[in-house]
Specification:
The complex is a heterotrimer. Chain A is mainly α. Chain A has four helices and three strands. Chain A has a domain of 40 residues. In chain A, a hairpin with a 2-residue loop joins β2 and β3. The chains are: A mainly alpha, B alpha/beta, C alpha+beta. At the A-B interface, α1, α2, α3 and β3 of A face α10, α11, α12, α13 and α15 of B. Bound molecules: magnesium ion and zinc ion (ZN).
Chain lengths: 99, 503, 505
């Protein structure tokens, strides 16, 4: 496994929606590379014949009845919103000018 | 005059039932202690004196009126800030949630309220439970009451320190890779990670959904059992919750203490010892094994060869799930928003997350994003989930040979604050012995096994049981605890140095 | 911009390949993963809870009914039902996606590998391959403020999460090739069939205008094979995906537009960009979606908060046995049973009247009588009121009752229309209206005889003509009697009495 380049870090930061300065990216590239090198060994040990375990206990078919439960009030739903208007959550423009 | 803060939870419950003390007196004693030591310990992010006293007063009134009350009614408790509390600020130790007042209660919060336990406040933690020292809290570190220059463990350092500083008799923790057991180990307290699904996760702010489990923190095994009894049981709001009756954990603890462990098969996990383990840690571990032998247990050794890969698998699975779980902190519905105006929601999200998340959280989100990204999934996340299968197989084979497995909880006693802050890999090693249980979903307990001679700091003894056999932990833990306290002539906590008290 | 090239020209020069993703909103009482009501049109953010608002700590639990609906739909589409399927998280940031991941299904969809026969207007049957049908949750709804009200040029947006978490089944076709200039027609018929199936199953209201059934249309063009060359050897072109094409007509229009646009680009030697495009209902064009510097990376992984879905084989067979007929089979059967002409049948289908007619027949009316009411008087009223037939305040049972009153002779046509008018005005069932308004046909012969005698006496010249053999002259007397009885007489009976009193019969 190869280590992470700064350009990888920039791509990941964009995917993860975290602004990072140039210096942050440099530092992160170093730290992530060290961690990735340390954990990459997982691919050595488990072959194709080993199934993946997603859930620690093998439960299946846990469903709920289609029965209505009370919702929050609009006021409670919006209480923690950084901005709200007309009973809705207000967010800055979704597309930039260039789009 | 009795110092009620030095009593255990069940002792408090019995004293209230006997009319020797009221819940208001107990709660006030804890609040006074908090006021006296918090400046040095910083176990709490929020103290709710008013709410706790109101609950206490209501319990006292009902008790005076002769009403039936739950066993722990009136016993104060501290709740890790990972658990959502309606109307009470909940931050998970992160600046991004600063000021968030949830509109709902976690299932466990609701159970604590139903049990009529006064909630003293919310305890400090590594941000989103990412860390082993509580230094990654967005609100400053918690200090280990045994030595204020040292870490209290993490992520649940606040809950463990609150117990060790006599601020609360009980606390709630969450354990994703050791966040209950490792802090218990380094603070000389007891912590239990239940079987995955044994306690509802609904309302516990998720770190890694397939690993997280809430559990009890206490100063004795039996107190932990009593709290586990309150927290546990099926919850239809959590699809991964086990729909099975809850065993009587307190009875299991009493049984172990009374009858010893004749015929119990105990196996030492070969891979969780030896190199990298501090001498005093190994010494105290061996002494506890001798005590177990004395109680009638047979001690053998088992090998779990895949454990070599557990840490690596854990540091792929956890960041992957966390990167997704923490996406919701996007400045739209709650929490921080950094908006300088004139830009898009995409830029605002990225600026908010840059500002609101600490370094360790960013590191793990980035790592998880990488591990799940196209082209890397199979090698990283996919392989890690296969390692999980191998670890489960190792456990299954080991439990063929033994009723419980044991190891030191942590390789070392608590290190100094700041010592590992810039070395994530060194920090991750603190959880090497606790992580396998989370990967396999099995229950584990840490209880104090003494002080390491070289530094006079607490050493933890870990007991692991098969899935759904949590009661076995209480039986074995209580028996060992009784033997240890007999040897010490009192609880280990009695040996803790007195903290400087503010006036 | 509208392409210059027509669809026909484009189809003449290129071989189209298309695929459709249909999202069906299920009509369960609650959302996919929480107990909030699944209802359209509530006040914003009043059908939300910690789960569907993506609040910290909240966890999803799957709706059993939604799973059942998805499996029934899969079976109706001829799909295999996976023994163990599971949910996955599709990770991307968007303000209407509360958790910033969508719970969907990825590599293990519940239903896969199906096929669906679609009948075109001329009776041609086309078999569409179904890749998969999987469960997922809907997103919330953004309202854009400032600019023109669209997302582009908006100053800011407002988010309502009521729709967030509503259960969806996404049905994905395999690539459909070789349809040539029937591509648009096939696409439309396919979506119409899906709509009919989900309505027939009762798992969705199928209302495209409310977004209950939404389609994304993929289209690419490839060069036509030279003579003697195998078309399948020609490489596929780059495709566009037109999102949210939300009416049957729009599906045809979107394909017409995209075919022309792509053909024009290709003929000019310009590349078709693989991209998402937005459908513009107003001018029938598509516009490019937001430009992406990098391909999306959704970082799918199994949803750790949910467990695998493993339906038992017995349950699947139970559901399969209880499936309704395929719409095209049902139509053929009904047409035969009812004895409708092709034209009558097609009109009834286009008017969405099949279920209404079926129910009216089940309530006792003859098929032609039922058809006559729904496609005649009621279609006229629905059209006048600009609402769907099924939205009229009259039930198939009302219509059957009305027809039985006619059949028994209690009402004549004119009175029946009056009774219906009363029912539509909210005055009760036709029988109740008849009673309240006193609409009954005068069937008492002695009363009619008296009225006839009076009319004959008043018009002796007409009587003479009748007696002279000019039987058609009786019409004038019928009219007079009808007037005298305020229309409440049976005209046929009146005529009989006239002839009898005139001594003709
Ligand atoms: Mg989809
Ligand atoms: Zn909801």
């Amino acid at each position: 496994m190869s280590s992470l380049e700064k350009s990888d870090v920039a791509r990941l930061a964009a995917l993860a929606r975290i602004d990072m300065t140039d210096a942050d990216q440099d530092r992160m590239a170093g730290q992530l590379s060290a961690i990735v090198d340390a954990v990459a060994k997982v691919s050595e040990v488990a072959g194709d014949d080993i199934p993946a375990t997603s859930h620690p206990l093998p439960l299946v078919n846990v469903h709920r009845e289609d029965v209505v439960r009370p919702s929050l009030t609009q006021a409670d739903a919006l209480a923690a919103a950084p901005a709200a208007e007309e009973g809705r959550f207000r967010v800055p423009q979704i597309l930039g000018e260039e789009a | 005059m009795t110092d009620w803060t030095r009593k255990g939870a069940l002792e408090m419950a019995d004293a209230m039932a006997a009319g020797e003390v009221t819940s208001v007196e107990l709660t006030q004693a804890c609040l006074d202690r908090i006021a006296a030591v918090e400046a040095n310990v910083h176990a709490f992010l929020l103290v709710d004196a008013e709410g706790a006293l109101a609950t206490a007063a209501a319990v006292d009134a009902d008790r005076a009126a002769g009403k039936d009350l739950p066993r722990l009614a009136g016993v104060p408790i501290a709740i890790k800030d990972v658990l959502v509390t309606k109307g009470m600020e909940t931050t998970a130790g992160s600046k991004i949630l600063s000021g968030w007042i949830p509109p709902y209660d976690a299932t466990v919060t609701a159970k604590i309220r139903e049990a009529r336990m006064p909630i003293l406040g919310k305890t400090n933690m590594d941000e989103f439970a990412m860390g082993s020292s509580t230094e990654h809290s967005g609100y400053g570190p918690t200090h280990n009451p045994w030595d204020l220059d040292r870490i209290p463990g993490g992520s649940g350092g606040g809950s463990a320190a609150a117990l060790a500083a006599w601020e609360a008799p009980l606390a709630i923790g969450s354990d994703t890779g050791g966040s209950i057991r490792q802090p218990a180990s380094v603070t000389g307290t007891v912590g239990v990670k239940p079987t995955y699904g044994g306690v509802s996760r609904y309302g516990a702010i998720a770190l890694a959904s397939s690993l997280d489990q809430l559990g009890p923190c206490a100063r004795s095994v039996e107190d932990a059992a009593a709290l586990h009894q309150v927290m546990g049981g099926h919850d239809p709001m959590d699809a991964t919750s086990l729909d099975e009756p809850l065993p009587d954990f307190v009875a299991a603890a009493q049984e172990g203490r009374a009858n010893g462990l004749k015929g119990l098969k105990v196996a030492v996990i070969k891979e969780l010892g030896g190199e990298g383990y501090q001498a005093g840690v190994k010494q105290r571990f061996e002494e506890s094994l001798d005590l177990l032998r004395g109680l009638g247990a047979e001690i053998t050794e088992v090998s779990c060869p895949s454990f070599e890969y557990a840490l690596a698998a854990y540091y792929l699975i956890l960041p992957s799930e966390a990167s997704s779980n923490l996406a919701k902190f996007d400045s739209v519905r709650f929490g921080l928003r950094v908006d300088e105006g004139g830009t898009t929601i995409e830029r605002v999200m990225a600026a908010t997350r840059a500002e609101g998340f600490g370094d360790e959280v960013k590191r793990r989100i980035m790592l998880g994003t990488y591990a799940l990204s196209a082209g890397y999934y199979d090698a990283y996340y996919g392989s890690a989930q296969k390692v999980r299968t191998l670890i489960q197989r190792d456990f299954a084979a080991a439990f063929e040979q033994a009723d419980v497995l044991v190891s030191p909880t942590t390789p070392t006693t608590p290190f100094k604050l700041g010592e590992q802050l810039d070395d994530p890999l060194a920090m991750y090693l603190n959880d090497v012995a606790t992580i396998p249980a989370n990967l396999a979903g099995i229950p584990g307990m840490s209880l104090p096994s003494g002080l390491a001679p070289e530094d006079n700091l607490p050493v933890g003894f870990q007991i692991l049981a098969p899935a759904r056999e949590d009661a076995r932990l209480y039986r074995v833990g209580a028996a060992l605890e009784a033997a240890l306290t007999a040897q010490w002539g009192g609880s280990l906590m009695a040996q803790a140095p007195e903290l400087e008290v503010a006036r | 911009m509208s392409p210059q090239m027509s669809y026909a020209d484009a189809m003449d020069k290129f071989d189209p390949v298309f695929g459709i993703e249909v999202h069906v909103e299920l009509n369960t009482k609650t959302k996919m993963f929480c107990g909030c009501a699944n209802e359209f049109g509530a006040e914003p953010n009043t059908q939300v809870c910690p789960v569907c608002l993506g609040l910290p700590g909240a966890m999803p639990v799957t709706n059993q009914k939604a799973v059942e609906s998805a499996i029934r739909l899969g079976l109706a589409l001829g799909c295999q039902i996976r023994e163990s399927s599971r949910f996955a998280r599709k990770n991307y940031f968007y303000p209407d996606l509360a958790k910033d991941y969508q719970i969907s299904q990825y590599d293990e969809p519940t239903c896969y590998e199906g096929s669906l026969d679609v009948v075109l207007d001329d009776g041609t049957v086309v078999t569409i391959g179904i890749e998969r049908a999987h469960m997922e949750e809907d997103a919330g709804k953004n309202t854009h403020k400032g600019g023109t009200g669209g997302i582009q040029g908006a100053d800011y947006s407002l988010v309502d999460y009521n729709r967030g978490g509503v259960p969806l089944v996404e049905i994905v076709t395999k690539p459909i090739e070789g349809m040539g200039d029937r591509t648009a027609e096939v696409a439309r018929a396919y979506v119409a069939t899906i709509r009919d199936i989900v309505k027939g199953l009762g798992i969705s209201d199928g209302r495209m205008e409310q977004g209950s059934v939404r389609a994304d249309v993929n289209l690419s063009l490839r060069a036509k094979a030279a003579d003697g060359e195998d078309q399948s050897a020609v490489p596929f072109g780059k495709r566009s995906e037109t999102k949210n094409v939300n009416s049957l007509r729009a599906i045809e229009r979107a394909i017409h537009h995209e075919a022309g646009r792509q053909a024009e680009l290709l003929l000019a030697g310009k590349p078709v960009v693989q991209e998402t495009r937005h459908w513009q209902e107003g001018d029938g064009t598509t516009t490019p979606g937001r430009s992406k510097e990098e391909a999306e990376d959704y970082r799918y992984f199994p949803e750790p908060d949910l467990l695998p879905v493993e339906p038992s084989r017995e349950w699947i067979e139970e559901l399969r046995a209880a499936l309704p007929e395929h719409p095209s089979k049902m139509r053929a059967r009904l047409q035969q049973e009812w004895g409708f002409s092709d034209l009558e049948m097609r009109d009834a289908i286009n008017a969405d009247a099949l279920v209404l007619i079926t129910d009216t027949v089940a309530a006792g009316a003859a098929p032609q009588a039922a058809r006559k009411w729904w496609m005649g008087e009621l279609a006229r009223v629905a059209n006048e009121r600009d609402i769907a037939l099924e939205a009229l305040p009259v039930t198939p049972a009302d219509i059957a009752e009305l027809q039985s009153l006619v059949d028994s002779g209690a009402l004549n046509d004119k009175l029946a229309r009056q009774a219906l008018e009363g029912t539509l005005a909210g005055e009760g069932s036709p029988a109740a209206v008849v009673k309240a308004r006193g609409l009954e046909v005068v069937s008492d012969d002695s009363a009619l005889e008296a009225a006839v005698d009076a009319a004959l006496a008043a018009q002796p010249d007409v009587l003479a003509k009748i007696q002279d053999g000019k039987v058609q002259a009786a019409g004038a007397i019928v009219g007079a009697v009808m007037q005298a009885t305020k229309g409440q007489a049976d005209a046929g009976r009146v005529r009989e009495i006239i002839l009898k009193r005139a001594g003709v019969q």
